[in-house]
Amino acid sequence: MTKKFANLRAQMSPESLARAETKAQAMLEEMPLNELRQARGLSQKMLAEVLHVQQPSIAKIEKRTDMYISTLRSHIEAMGGQLEVVARFPDGAVKISNFEDIGNNAAA
Amino acid sequence: MTKKFANLRAQMSPESLARAETKAQAMLEEMPLNELRQARGLSQKMLAEVLHVQQPSIAKIEKRTDMYISTLRSHIEAMGGQLEVVARFPDGAVKISNFEDIGNNAAA
């Protein structure tokens, strides 16, 4: 199967390939925080330990539909990830850099 | 120049092209909210009118290094964009879906 797929790709025009790549990038998987944690193989208890909070705090954060960006950043960094805040427009996307320096200490 | 660039691309292997596309996607331009507003050709006054707030509120938001995700979403939607919250890991990225339903009314 792998070989067949490679052959298929080799037959695609550079333009088609580029389009496919862009589409793949645009179609990031989407999930809530609790599913992401499970996908990373982490328990609420493990995350609570990293963040030096009690387990119910993690449960509470995972249920929230709004929070401070710094809180979210700490939460994602505790899972070993990095938060990216992106503004997407019909003609392109931009990373918002206002929040780069926050949250790093909270997760330490 | 355009033609030369197209020729160059046509000579690239599908693998090189795919790598280049992925890299371009990963290297999103990065800027703070005030620069993004200017890049969209908007004034603080215009944004204030869309959000039904006073101009100093916009100035204040643009200076903040932390805020509620709902506030940021309204702000970006007022510029005609969409907020994306992404957790990036060494092995991939995931869009966080907890915040999808917030902020839409605030910007209306």
Automatic annotation (TrEMBL), chains A, B:
Coiled coil: none
UniProt cross-references to SUPFAM superfamilies, sorted A to Z: lambda repressor-like DNA-binding domains
GO MF, one annotated term: DNA binding
Pfam families: HTH_37 (PF13744)
InterPro entries, per the entry: Cro/C1-type_HTH, HigA2-like_HTH, Lambda_DNA-bd_dom_sf
PROSITE patterns per the UniProt record, alphabetical: HTH_CROC1 (PS50943)
Limits of the HTH cro/C1-type domain: 33-63
Descriptive protein name: Helix-turn-helix protein
